[in-house]
Amino acid sequence: MVACLVWLAGCETSSKLTDAFRWNDAPLASAADPEPTGSVPSPLDKPDLVGSDPNDDLSVGKKYFRQGSYGLAERHFRKSVEMHPRDAESWVGLAASYDRLRRFDLADRAYAQAVKLLGPTTEILNNQGFSYMLRGDTKRARETLLAAQAKEPNNPYVLSNLKLLEDSQRKRKGVN
């Protein structure tokens, strides 16, 4: 797998990223009461993108992720990035699955690949900040979430994650 990631590291694309934690058919939290998920909704969903077929690995990975079956989600996202190495959405889904499986070393590699493809978008920065919260790395979480907030100051998901971070620090508890 490491060889595959090294091989894929040189790929570039203009693919548009959609939300790693809440995809097309998942209900979104309202702006007034966003759920801290580590992700940001995106209006960039288009039917011709990878993931429009309900049976492709990206779509199946999303389904398993929403169900909390992170091992199965990881398997399908991994297949998706192997078939579509320029699809940032698949890379972010893979990273999010690795986060939930507590394989942060692999999550970092997948996030790095997504950043290579799209740059440090609000969505990716927010997801990385949430990843750092899961690890208990509050300093990096704050820095990364503040970078996401600088890109979109009123983004309810970023604001929600910043509040979650603040609450966890005040209570001196980690994020699960």
Q: What does it look like?
A:
With 176 residues, the protein is mainly α. The chain folds into two domains: 50-119, Tetratricopeptide repeat domain (Serine Threonine Protein Phosphatase 5, Tetratricopeptide repeat, Alpha Horseshoe), CATH 1.25.40.10; 121-176. It is built from eight helices and no strands. It has helices at 2-8, 57-67, 70-83, 88-100, 104-118, 122-135, 138-151, 156-171. Helix 2 (57-67) runs parallel beside helix 4 and helix 7 (138-151) runs antiparallel to helix 8 (156-171). The longest helix is centred in the C-terminal third of the chain and has 16 residues, at 156-171. It starts with a helix and ends in a 5-residue tail after the last helix. The relative contact order is 0.15. Mean pLDDT is 79; it is low at 1-33 and 40-49.
CATH class of the largest domain: Mainly Alpha
CATH topology name of the largest domain, in short, is: Serine Threonine Protein Phosphatase 5, Tetratricopeptide repeat
The best one-word shape is globular
Fourth-level CATH superfamily of the largest domain = Tetratricopeptide repeat domain
Structural class: mainly alpha
Uncertain stretches: 1-33, 40-49
